[in-house]
Design brief:
binds zinc ion, alpha/beta, five-stranded parallel β-sheet, two-stranded parallel sheet, 9 helices
Length: about 280
């Protein structure tokens, strides 16, 4: 898929979302009348969203029956060379957060651990510098929707489309990385959501084991669960969504300990498949 066709997809999203995605008035596309009259504050006719039978989208990815939960699943879904036998992947959700993301970034830097940050579009909003710092440090980013709605698997497609497109656009425009992976909030999946992810050229990504760090079960609990990680797993942690001090403290122990056990942290690839 060419960059142009991807931008077309995003462009279509911007149209569908209208002024919602345009925070600055300078970015509002101006409509000129033939007579040169000034545009009013409501330049757009109240046209319905373009019919879905004419999608301005590139071809969809194959629809997966289940989201990716392990590194083996991942390679099966996206192709490419196998990961090393001792590989493990760290994913960090719900940021960027002004306090916890920079702290976790420093920790990852110290221990030379690459990670995948599953970002929420409306958290990137206002924390753009931190989002860019994530990418500058060599980490990858995934689409974790625009606003993190619950029960996404049973929502109407119109809402799902809006969440995916708006999240994608904000993350891409801010970081320069177009996410290739999509994580549903709370791991809420359905056949319809898996189809929609594929239609958006996003690979659905889950995890192998949830230490439930988001519920603040205590540092010892999080640490114990993460230390039990085995090769081939996709680990889940959070840098956003509240006070992540337990997660941070746990990672200070867990990252060097897992490396000492011989595990190799791998970054999930940015692109799901070679350009064709
Ligand atoms: Zn989340």
């Amino acid at each position: 898929m060419s960059g142009m066709s991807r931008r077309r997809m995003l462009g279509a999203g911007a149209v569908a979302l209208g002024a919602l995605s345009l925070a600055g008035s300078a970015a509002v596309p101006r409509q000129r009348t033939p007579g040169g009259a000034r545009a009013t504050t409501t330049p757009r006719p109240a046209a319905p969203v373009p019919a879905r039978s004419q999608p301005a989208r590139p071809p969809a990815l194959p629809v997966l029956a289940e989201p990716v939960r392990t590194l083996t699943d991942y390679r099966r879904a996206v192709g490419g060379p196998a990961f090393p036998a001792d590989a493990i992947a760290l994913t960090i959700d719900d940021g960027p957060h002004p306090v916890w993301t920079p702290k976790i970034l420093r920790l990852l830097r110290k221990h030379h651990v690459p990670a995948l940050f599953c970002m929420i579009g409306n958290q990137v909003l206002g924390h753009e510098t931190i989002a860019r710092e994530v990418v500058r440090d060599g980490h990858h980013v995934a689409n974790h929707t625009w606003s993190h709605p619950t029960h996404l698997g049973s929502r109407k497609r119109k809402l799902v489309d809006k969440e995916l497109l708006r999240g994608q656009e904000k993350i891409h425009d801010t970081t320069g990385q177009a996410p290739a992976l999509f994580r549903s909030p709370g791991g809420d999946w359905s056949p319809a959501l898996l189809r929609d992810a594929a239609a958006h050229q996003l690979v659905p990504l889950d995890w192998s084991d949830d230490p439930r760090d988001w519920s603040r079960p205590g540092v010892a609990h999080i640490t114990r669960r993460l230390l039990a990680a085995r090769p081939g797993q996709i680990l889940l942690c959070h840098d956003g969504g509240g006070d992540r001090s337990q997660t941070y403290t746990s990672l200070k122990t867990v990252l060097p300990a897992l490396r000492a056990k011989g595990l190799t942290f791998v970054a999930l690839d940015r692109r799901p498949r070679p350009e064709v």
